[in-house]
Amino acid sequence: MWPEDDSFRSRFTMGVRAPPRLLELASQSLLQNEALAIVALEELPTELFPPLFMAAFAGRHTQALKAMVQAWPFPCLPLGALMKDHQPHLETFQAVLDSLDILLGQEVRPRRWKLQVLDLRQNTHQDFWTLWSGIKASVCSLLEPEPAQPMQKRCKVEAQVVLKPAQAPVEVLVDLCLKEDTLDETISYLLKKAKQRRSLLHLRCQKLRIFTMPMQSIRRILKVVQLDSIQDLEVNCIWKLATLGRFVPHLGRMGNLRRLLLSRIHILPRTTPDQEEHFIDQLTIQFLNLPHLQKLYLDSISFLEGRLHQVLRCLKTPLETLWITNCLISESDLAYLSQCPSVSQLKDLGLSGVNLTSLSLEPLKVLIEWTSATLQDLDLDECGIMDSQFSALLPALSCCSQLTTFSFCGNPISMAVLESLLHHTMGLSKLSHVLYPSPLESYEDVRGTLHLGLLAQLHARLKRLLCESGRSSMVWVSASPCPHCGEQIFYDTEPILCPCYMPA
């Protein structure tokens, strides 16, 4: 018997390599004779399937993998989590899909086969393989095996029923990132199989990222994907407005979309006003088909100025997140935003990179007041907001009871206004992080040369005011661009410098 003292046990085992567990030995033994392993699958206990599959996948035993897929006793095969830990070999991945393809072509399917979902996402079901290889049964219901049967009854059932009729299609879950003109070989093979078995193999994609890829290739891929499965879409391409017009019919079929990012859409100089209106109408009318949209990000959209009402008026439900960044907007856009029904319940508002210097911020003040009961994150970085404009916003900011993060870096703000902001936000108990620009007094000259000594003094003053007000736990961090390279210099208790300031 081991003594009860854990430290004794740890000292005894230190430096001694743990022997292989019984499951590992059993898996290794079976796979030494792949043909025997395949024959044994019908009688193999359920708890041996995951460790044996892991060993076969890592060892590239393609024939054993094919047989195990066709006898898989769980509703879900989380292959993506396994591929994350073991760099997939194309032949191994193809073996899994080929086996599934053969099975879907049969009128009847093996008795033990329970597979409904092949999950290729790498960040889901992380604990499945660990739990089952350790023989722990606390797995989510989707991954639970077939109920155990008494041995006599089980043998009787197996003698009577060997095959069962084909059931519903198998779903393949995958996140897609479309870059360049060529796809990863594994994704290309998956798309090929999904196209061949379109009625029986449903390709479902929760997250879709589109970067640089020809529109013809994108549309060909989207024909294979179940578009109503897409919940998170990023279009991060340098597209002409006309190119976007070719894509938006697919957008309108993504009825379960929750998050949409559109970036870098520009208008060619020769585009006529009528053509612009046509393409913009094509886009915005699709929003009527997106009843679950909660988060909208519009970045570097060249057609937005004077047309924000056209873009937002077709939204069917209130947004939680609205980011309009690096865009030109007009005073009428800001006025519309302050009364748009779709932004009445915002939790996250971002206007970073939107030049507000020449605009009246009264509408923005109204918008902040309107969303004060829900707003949690506010980003006004690089907006060119002056002291007088910022001061006008302070009463509205003081009403934001749910605000947790406020960032307004890159605006020319004085120390006096920063102190006023601090006093106006003292009552916001949930506000924990403020990212502010280096105050105007911390620059040596009009060329924008930052004086770190002055910045340290001003930052210390703000920290002292926070302590005196009983809010020492609130984090105030300043950020300013390096005058040499443009990279951000952050300052909390000490400056975090970019390499330009480092001694050689």
- Biggest sheet descriptor: 13 strands, mixed
Average predicted confidence as pLDDT: 83
Could you give the count of β-strands?
20
What is the radius of gyration? 30 Å
Order of the strands making up the biggest sheet: 6-8-10-11-12-13-14-15-16-17-18-19-20
Overall SS class: alpha/beta
Low-pLDDT ranges: 1-20, 135-165
Family: Belongs to the PRAME family.
Keywords: Leucine-rich repeat, Repeat
InterPro entries: LRR_dom_sf, LRRC14/PRAME, PRAME
Organism: Bos indicus x Bos taurus
Overview of this structure, please?
This protein has 504 residues and is of the alpha/beta class. Among the domains are: 25-133, no CATH class; 346-503, Alpha-Beta Horseshoe (Leucine-rich repeat, LRR (right-handed beta-alpha superhelix)). It starts with 5 loop residues before the first helix and ends in an 8-residue tail after the last strand. A 13-stranded mixed beta sheet has the order 6-8-10-11-12-13-14-15-16-17-18-19-20. It has a five-stranded parallel beta sheet with strand order 1-3-5-7-9. Strand 18 (475-481) and strand 19 form a beta hairpin. The chain has helices at residues 6-13, 22-32, 34-40, 49-58, 62-70, 79-85, 90-104, 128-133, 151-160, 185-196, 215-222, 241-251, 273-286, 308-312, 331-337, 362-370, 387-397, 415-425, 452-468, and strands spanning 76-77, 108-110, 117-119, 163-165, 170-173, 176-178, 201-204, 207-210, 225-226, 232-240, 259-266, 295-301, 321-325, 348-350, 377-379, 405-407, 433-437, 475-481, 488-491, 495-496. The longest helix is centred in the C-terminal third of the chain and has 17 residues, at 452-468.
